[in-house]
Amino acid sequence: MAKPDLGPLIRRFFEQHLVSERGLSGHTVLSYRDAWKLFLQFVSTQKGKTCTDLTLEDLTADTVRRFLNHLEEKRKNGIHTRNNRLAAIHAFFAYLSTIDPRHLSQGKAILAVPFKRRAAPVPEYLEREEVLKIFAVIDVRTFHGQRDDALLRVLYNTGMRAQELVSLDVNHLRLSRPSHVRIHGKGQKERTCPLWKETVQAVKSYLERRAVSLTDPVPLFVNRDGTRLTRFGVRYIVAHRVAEAASRCPSLLTRKVTPHTWRHTTAMHLLQSNVDLSMIKRSSRARNCSPPTENMLLRGSVIGISCPGFRACSYVKQPTWPVATRPASRRLSFACCT
Is residue 161 flagged as an active site residue? Predict the structure, then answer.
């Protein structure tokens, strides 16, 4: 029996298995694609062949291990990136083992290549005074000031991920009461998050300046060219505004603040405002909460108990409606952090 060609197998893996059968998001598929591009280029160099001449027999467990070492030693990738590349390789050989049992042994050997454990960093979050200083330095008289103010308030209000933020369209918002935003998260899951009145006012002012209707399916946050803001743009805005505020708040000089830092900040401030920990975790729709993040939140719960009158900001408060008279789906949908 003729041996299967590598090219068609990889194509079926991406076009049929990942997209049609597993329904993975476009971002996951692109991540897998990049991993396989790097892996095939590495094997091609190691074997002295072109990528089109590679066969399944060239892809061994030892080759995978050498590739992972190459990522860490030559490309200076971190353990997280290394494990993501390995996940893409594992996924292919798990798929291959189901459609062609002749490669069970090869697949088993490669699937046995382990993920590397790493010491998870302690999550950073901003203190109340730091958040207020950042908002205070933004000049909302300018277009970019209005945009950045609205962006950071949405980020702080919802605790959403950077990718979720840049994926927002204007028609995902409801600014009349009850105000909320529909968030399309990981795994193509959707959740709804209430918006504070300060957030609503900032977004309204920003959209009025853009002369955009709430029914328009256009990007919520745009760059100077009027096109959708990217994750890298959000990262730049966060870093820029934090650097501006650092002159008034020296503690920010020692912090590395990213969009994900705001996600941690949201969770911590909600907890310190006496929002139940289980509600924060459950409403995040995240797959899990890492141990360092869980520890951070548990420390915050102690702070909330010792200072029951604490409020992160004047508009971070517990729900005011009676729990028994509201359906569970209408409760707060703030995000936890992973």
Answer: yes
